[in-house]
Design a protein that fits this description.
The protein is mostly beta strands and 738 residues long. 5% of the residues lie in helices and 50% in strands. It is built from 6 helices and 41 strands. Strand 28 and strand 29 form a beta hairpin. It is globular, with a radius of gyration of 30 Å.
Length: 738
């Protein structure tokens, strides 16, 4: 999320990267932001735009063009505070995008649909506008964006040259975003769309010190905070004393068949934040021309807060309101955890006999600061099932006999033995790389390494009170603070060859092997008494990826350049979602244990760029992308009774995607100042690229459920079947011109 104008250096590392990097699987991106210097410099940039599309069959209100629907303002300023010693760099950006996914406010959140008695669900009375009996709802009919996005970014950096060989940097970055995600079912009640907020800021103090001509170190102290939350209304109550609220009673909420939702308010409120203190040291020594040694370590302490509640309706003194469920309720999850990460590494690079040899070793340690159950068959400390957990059973007969001296156990009694600390996790990760020339313009490169990735914290701490639902059967999914880190072994070998002075070709073959992925393939745990069971996360899943990449670059005389890269890959495993096995059981099917394409498998990817530029005059660039569709599991129409295992998992592929973007600019020079006029067009051809589909047809617009609806000719109120089955969120962004 760094502002592009602030970037001084950008480094992308892929493959089996060096031991100094941990907690990553696909690659590393290093960004160095600019420093100030003795010259005062500034930059201002603004652009406006909107979506220009003819696809009004898929996007409502898309033909209503407003030139400032997308607007961006950014600028930077740098220079000296104390000449030759203290410098500053500052930049900021404001961005707003009205969005392209619209709903229409035909209903307010207080509107209702009520089934006509005796109609069998075929006829409904809709709340009408008292001022206009011909209207079915009280809404004003205005089009309302359901995916707006507003973002504020700011950075301030101080650079102090304490000594000629020592530099201190303090960097502060703020990034805030407010947005909404499109909800197709609420298209006619757009005010019932959750508001979402994301915020992050970082403080980093860096010391760069050259000890000698051959040794230097970097020491970083940082604090990083990030937070995400969503809700419908900021305050639950408009009046705390009377519990008056803007939320409505959803119990009476009804939706006619094949209609968008009418009224209602989303009861979910969610907040998650992480504050991370970090210290990192990297030391590098160049012993001689052939040998370089680097070592270092890092320590991180996180403060994680999580709160997820679902309100419930109630009547207080006859007045409708909503209440927050108690912490012992499954609809109220809250926890604070302080996991700790630590690592040390050492690596060395040897250059001799035209060979470059990299070898390294990394050691990681992780303390999850979590609890696991001492007795998994009796999970809920507030509602114990085993008699020995309910009372002190002196004669061990399982019967509460107070006359014989049995006494109830309190919550404090059970807390003494109910939980155990999750174990500390360790891993050693060797890394090796090799490069050697095969000609004066060609080189072979090889890398191999072991990597470790912590499981998502939500998998460790999910359902922190270990609560189960009511009823028999599988009644819940519990987190597991004792999950082991995911392990990946990856390697690649490639050939890079320069042809002439302006053509280069790179061919790389790669593989990745995943182990200890989070899943729910383990046996279901039976609760004491046998009426209920539950699942918990375990290191039960696995997968692999393999393929090759071909890259081609050609530079022509006169400022024209092209690049082309093609990737073929196969990514398979036993499950794409950690909860797949449990979901199969809940659906009445056996968990699938065979290897199949994973959800993110993409067999063919092709990227092409063409750029032409004349320095300080004009230029343009075209970027094209082609991707084959990712896999999906064929489904059935909702009225057909077929088991989950009737169709092979991820046996079909979504449609392919092609996209073309354009940027063109013209520079006008006034002495040391440059005015640059530009236009950017995303999705230049305004193509219908599907991002979602109906699984029973493999199509983003057609579904067999539509045929079932046509057979019964249902009564439709405020939408047509075309509108109901055309989900605007199933398509990529239309043409955007800025």
């Amino acid at each position: 999320n760094v502002n592009a104008n602030a970037v001084q250096e950008l480094q992308v590392i892929s493959g089996a990267f060096n031991a100094e990097y941990g907690q990553a699987m696909s690659g590393i991106i290093n960004i160095v932001t600019k420093d100030g210097d003795n010259e005062l410099r500034g930059n201002l940039q603004t652009y406006v735009g909107d979506y220009v599309s003819t696809r009004n069959d898929k996007f409502w209100n898309i033909d209503n063009i407003k030139p400032t629907a997308v607007r961006n303002f950014e600028g930077s300023l740098s220079g000296p505070i104390l000449r030759d010693e203290l410098f500053f760099y500052a930049n900021s950006r404001y961005y707003y995008n009205t969005g392209y996914l619209y709903g229409q406010r035909k209903f307010l959140v207080t509107d209702r649909a009520t089934e006509v008695a005796g109609s069998g669900g075929a006829d409904f009375n809709i709340t009408k506008d008292v001022n206009d009996p011909t209207k079915n709802g009280n809404g004003d009919g205005e089009f309302v964006s359901m995916n707006p996005r507003e973002r504020i970014y700011a950075q301030g950096k101080l650079t102090y040259r304490l000594l000629p060989e020592m530099k201190l940097n303090f960097n502060y970055v703020l990034d805030k975003e407010e947005y909404q995600d499109y909800n197709h079912s609420r298209k006619l009640t757009p005010d019932n769309n959750l508001q979402r907020f994301r915020k992050g800021y970082s403080n980093t103090l860096s010391i760069n010190h050259a000890i000698s001509n051959s040794s230097f170190y970097n020491l970083n102290f940082s604090y990083y905070f990030k937070q995400y939350q969503h809700y419908l209304f900021e305050d639950i109550y408009t009046n705390e004393s009377t519990l008056a609220t803007n939320y409505v009673n959803n119990v009476a909420l009804q939706t006619p068949p094949y209609s968008f939702d009418i009224g209602g308010t989303d009861y979910n409120r969610f907040k998650r934040s992480t504050g991370t203190y970090s210290v990192k040291l990297d030391w590098t020594t160049q012993f001689n021309q052939e040998i370089n040694v680097q070592f270092g370590g890092e320590f991180k302490r996180h403060n994680i807060f999580f709160k997820d509640i679902t309100l419930f309706p109630a009547f207080i003194n006859g007045v409708p309101t909503v209440l927050v469920p108690p912490i012992t309720d499954p609809n109220n999850d809250e926890y604070t955890r302080n996991p700790i990460e630590g690592s040390v590494y050492a690596q060395s690079k040897f250059e001799a006999f035209d060979l470059i040899f990299n070898i390294g070793l990394r050691f990681d340690i992780f303390n999850p600061d979590g609890k696991v159950l001492s007795d998994p068959t009796d999970p809920n400390i507030n509602l114990p099932l085993r008699p020995s957990n309910q009372f002190n059973d002196l004669n061990n007969n399982g019967v509460y006999e107070p006359l014989l001296g049995d006494t109830p156990k309190t919550l404090a009694d059970r807390e003494q033995y109910w939980y155990k600390d999750a174990s500390v996790k360790y891993q050693l990760s060797p890394r090796v790389g090799l490069a050697f020339p095969i000609s004066d313009k060609g080189v072979i490169h090889f890398s191999y390494g072991h990597f470790f990735q912590l499981p998502g914290y939500e998998r460790l701490y999910e359902n922190p009170e270990f609560e189960l639902g009511v009823g028999s059967g599988n009644a819940g999914l519990l987190g597991n603070a004792d999950l082991k880190p995911q392990k990946t072994v990856k390697g690649e070998i490639g050939v890079q060859q320069q042809i002439g002075d302006d053509i280069s070709v790179d061919v790389t073959v790669f593989f990745e092997d995943f182990r200890d992925l989070t899943g729910t393939q383990s046996d279901v745990i039976s609760v004491f008494g046998g009426a209920q069971s539950y699942s918990k996360y375990a290191n039960s899943d696995f997968g692999f990826s393999k393929g090759f990449i071909i890259s081609f670059e050609k530079r022509f005389s006169g400022g024209l350049a092209t690049s082309l890269d093609y990737t073929f890959s196969v990514t398979k495993g036993n499950a794409s979602n950690p909860a797949d096995a449990r979901n199969a059981i809940l659906g009445g099917a056996l968990p699938e244990t065979y290897v199949a394409p994973l959800d993110w498998d993409q067999t063919h990817s092709l990227n092409l760029s063409v750029a032409y530029s004349v320095e300080r005059d004009y230029g343009f660039s075209l970027i094209g992308n082609f991707y084959t569709g990712q896999p999906y599991s064929p489904g059935v129409n909702k009225n057909t009774r077929v088991s989950q295992n009737a169709f092979p998992r991820n046996s079909e592929n979504k449609p392919s995607i092609f996209n073309l973007d354009l940027r063109a600019y013209k520079d006008i020079v006034f002495g040391n100042t440059v005015l640059s006029l530009f236009v950017k067009v995303t999705n230049l051809l305004d193509l219908d690229n599907p991002t979602g589909i109906y699984t029973n047809s493999g199509d983003p617009q057609f579904t067999f459920d539509r045929l079932d609806a046509e057979k019964i000719n249902p009564k439709l109120y405020e939408n047509t079947l075309d509108e109901f089955y055309t989900d605007s969120g199933f398509f990529s962004e239309p043409r955007r011109v800025e």
